[in-house]
Design goal:
Radius of gyration: 20 Å
Oligomer: single chain
Strand content: 5-15%
Number of strands: 11
Bound molecules: 2-acetamido-2-deoxy-1-O-phosphono-alpha-D-glucopyranose, magnesium ion
Shape: globular
Structural class: alpha+beta
Distance between the termini: 46 Å
Largest sheet: 6 strands, antiparallel
Number of helices: 12
Helix content: 40-55%
Order of helices and strands: HEEEHHEEEEHHHHEEEEHHHHH
C-alpha cells in the first residue's frame, strides 16, 4: 500500500489497533502511519483494508488540562458547521467539516489504562496540505477557507466553549512565562538566546496593543480556531480550500489570532523551522491574496477597528510564536516536540527574521487589499 510502518515511542501497531477497536468504525484495520507534523499531540492515519481511513489522535493531557472539555468543543463546533452546511450533498459535506466517530459505548473519546485520551475522526481522502505556500491562489483559497470557518461559527455562543488553554494568545501571559524562563535559563542557552531576548524587549509594548484592545472590550470575543497555520487547512487536488482541521484549540478569542497565525505561515517563504534564514522572507503578495479571500467571507461582519488592526495581527502572531519558541528553548524544551537540541532556537530565529522582513512591507500592508 506504499505506507511505511513504524513504531513510535511505546506505541505499537497492536496497541493502536486495540485503541482503534474501541471506536464504532467501519472496515478492518490494516496498518497505520504517523502523521508527524504537529508539535503537541500524536496523530496516526489508520488504514483499513477498505476505505474509509481514519485519523486517530492522542491528545496531550500534559498540555491540555481538560481533554473532555476540548473534545466537547470540537465535536459541538463540527455539528454546528454541519448543520449550517446541510444543504450540501453528503459527499461534499463530509469533505467540508471534520466528522468525529463515537466509541462503542457512545462517548466522543476513549481513555486507555495509562490515562491517555484518544479521539477518532474520518480521514478526508484525496486532499492536500501545504507546509509552505508556493502560489497566490492557495493563499487566496486559504483566506476564504479560514474566513468561512469564522463566519460559520460566528453565531455559536463562545461562552459555551471550554477555554482549553487559558490565556493561550495573551501577550502578558506569554511575556511572564518568558520572564520566568529568563530567571532559570542555563548560561549556555542564555548566551545563544541573548540577541533574541533583546528583540523581545524592544518589541514588547507594540506587541501588547491587541491584548489591550481585547481587554478594554474594543475588540470583541468570537469563536476562534487559534491554530490557523496553513498546514491546518485541507485543499482539494485542484487547490480549492476544502476543510479546516486541528480544531483542538477552538476557544473564545479575537479574529486577529486567526488572521495573524494564517499570515505567519502563508507569507513565510520557508517553513517555520528553516535554518537558512536567507530563505525566510515575508511575501506581501500572499498577504494581499489571503486578505482578499478572508474579507470576501468576513468583511461584512468586521468592525472598523477589527479591520484596522489586521496588519498588526500578523506581526503580533509571528512575535508570539517567536516568544514561545524562545521561551521553550530557555526552559530546555519542555513544551514543543523537538528533533534536535537547538530546534526551538532555530524556530525562534526564523520567526524573528520573518518579523524583520514583514517590517519592510508594513506600510504597504496597511492599505486594504484590493
Ligand atoms: C502547536 O501541535 P500543533 O503543531 O498543532 C501549538 C500552536 C503553535 C504551533 C506552531 C497547543 O500546534 O500554538 O502555533 O505548534 N499548539 C499548542 O507550529 O500549543
Ligand atoms: Mg494544533
Amino acid at each position: 500500500m506504499g505506507f511505511t510502518q513504524q513504531n513510535f515511542g511505546n506505541m505499537s501497531a497492536e496497541k493502536l489497533k486495540s485503541i482503534f477497536e474501541q471506536f464504532e468504525h467501519e472496515g478492518e484495520f490494516y496498518t497505520y502511519k504517523e502523521l508527524a507534523s504537529g508539535h503537541i499531540n500524536d496523530t496516526y492515519l489508520m488504514i483499513t483494508k477498505d476505505k474509509p481511513y481514519y485519523v486517530l489522535q492522542r491528545i496531550n493531557h500534559g498540555v491540555f488540562k481538560d481533554v473532555p472539555g476540548l473534545i466537547e468543543n470540537k465535536v459541538s463546533i463540527s455539528s454546528h458547521i454541519r448543520e449550517k452546511l446541510k444543504y450540501l450533498p453528503k459527499v461534499q459535506l463530509d469533505r467540508s467539516v471534520l466528522t468525529f466517530v463515537k466509541t462503542k459505548n457512545g462517548r466522543s473519546f476513549y481513555q486507555d489504562e495509562e490515562g491517555n485520551y484518544w479521539n477518532l475522526m474520518y480521514f478526508i481522502d484525496d486532499s492536500l496540505t501545504f507546509e509552505t505556500v508556493k502560489d497566490k491562489e492557495v493563499a487566496y483559497e486559504g483566506g476564504k477557507l479560514f474566513g468561512e470557518f469564522l463566519n460559520l461559527t460566528s453565531d455559536f455562543d463562545a461562552s459555551k466553549l471550554t477555554e482549553v488553554i487559558p490565556k493561550f494568545h495573551d501577550m502578558s501571559f506569554r511575556y511572564s512565562q518568558f520572564q520566568s524562563a529568563l530567571r532559570s535559563v542555563s548560561k549556555e542557552r542564555l548566551f545563544k538566546a541573548e540577541s533574541y531576548i533583546d528583540r523581545v524587549i524592544e518589541l514588547k509594548e507594540e506587541m501588547h496593543i491587541l491584548q489591550n484592545l481585547k481587554e478594554s472590550g474594543d475588540i470583541k470575543l468570537r469563536v476562534t480556531h487559534n491554530d490557523t497555520k496553513i498546514s491546518n487547512a485541507l485543499f482539494a487536488e485542484d487547490h480549492k480550500g476544502l476543510c479546516v482541521i486541528d480544531t483542538d484549540t477552538i476557544m473564545p478569542g479575537i479574529i486577529h489570532y486567526d488572521f495573524g497565525d494564517a499570515i505567519r505561515t502563508i507569507c513565510n517563504t520557508a517553513a517555520e523551522d528553516e535554518t537558512n534564514l536567507d530563505l525566510v522572507a515575508f511575501n506581501a503578495d500572499y498577504y494581499k491574496a489571503y486578505t482578499k479571500g478572508f474579507l470576501e467571507k468576513m468583511e461584512a461582519s468586521l468592525t472598523p477597528i477589527e479591520l484596522k488592526y489586521l496588519p498588526l495581527a500578523a506581526k503580533t502572531m509571528i512575535f508570539i510564536m517567536a516568544l514561545r519558541f524562545l521561551t521553550d528553548y530557555m526552559n530546555d524544551d519542555v513544551y514543543y516536540k523537538t528533533k534536535y537540541p537547538e530546534h526551538n532556537l532555530d524556530r525562534a530565529k526564523n520567526q524573528f527574521k520573518l518579523i524583520e522582513s514583514l517590517n519592510e512591507h508594513y506600510e504597504d500592508l496597511k492599505i486594504k487589499a484590493n
